[in-house]
Amino acid sequence: MSGLALVAGIMAGVTLSGLLACTIVDEELKIWPTPGKGSWQRRIFWTLFRTLNVATLALAFLDWQPWEGFSLERGLGATLSIASFALYGWACYALGRRNLYCGRAGLVTGGIYSWTRNPQYAAAIPAYLGLAVASNSIAVFAIALLLTLSFVLMAVAEEHWLEAAYGADYRRYRREVARFYNWRHALAVLKEEAMPAKENSEEARL
């Protein structure tokens, strides 16, 4: 059964990544975002994407290696996975049901979307990679890498669509916020938080 999940995941991941790459080069393919209900692109995309996700989760369950004794790496992987899946849910909620899967209910730029333009993908990537580390399975890690590649390509493919949908507002947003991980913003916030603590410590010494 694990072999079947591995083969299905690899085939779906390689095919999906190839089609997404072709879409980035030639927007007329439109494998993602899909043209709409009933289109062949929609049927193919969701079949491949769901197969890849299900295969990753199934393989993690089927090929889970025995956890004997304390393992810092696997513990951190499991923690990262759980936290990231929770963050993914939060990102979906913040985007709104009508905006999910490339809906056009308005450009969301506040909250978690002020940190990253793609919080769902930015959360899903460490969620699956953390799951691979926790499972201690090379097969799961290989499928998770294909899924990571698909998320990256999906984010890039969406940008032309978003610019066409929201114009100057999206171009401004794209300049200000990182595609995935806004390290500069995070460091700036940490620095601002650290300053009062440092000042209080200096005042206490005086």
Number of helices: 7
Helical content (DSSP H or I, runs of 4+): over 70%
Q: What is the CATH class?
A: Mainly Alpha
Taking all residues together, what is the mean pLDDT?
A: 89
Uncertain ranges: none
How does CATH name the architecture? Up-down Bundle
Please count the beta strands (DSSP E, at least 2 residues each). 0
| Terminal Cα span | 68 Å
- Count of all domains: 1
Radius of gyration: 20 Å
How would you describe this protein?
The chain has 206 residues and is mainly alpha-helical. Helices cover 72% and strands 0% of the residues. The protein contains seven helices and no strands. It has helices at residues 2-25, 40-62, 72-95, 119-135, 138-166, 168-176, 183-205. The chain starts with a helix and ends with a helix. The mean pLDDT is 89.
Summarize this structure as a short list of keywords or feature phrases.
mainly alpha; Four Helix Bundle (Hemerythrin (Met), subunit A); 7 helices
Helix and strand topology:
Elements: H1 2-25, H2 40-62, H3 72-95, H4 119-135, H5 138-166, H6 168-176, H7 183-205
Helix pairs in contact: 1-2, 1-5, 2-4, 2-5, 3-4, 4-5, 5-6
Could you give a quick summary of the protein structure above?
The chain is mainly α and 206 residues long. The protein is built from 7 helices and no strands. It has one domain: Four Helix Bundle (Hemerythrin (Met), subunit A) (Up-down Bundle), CATH 1.20.120.
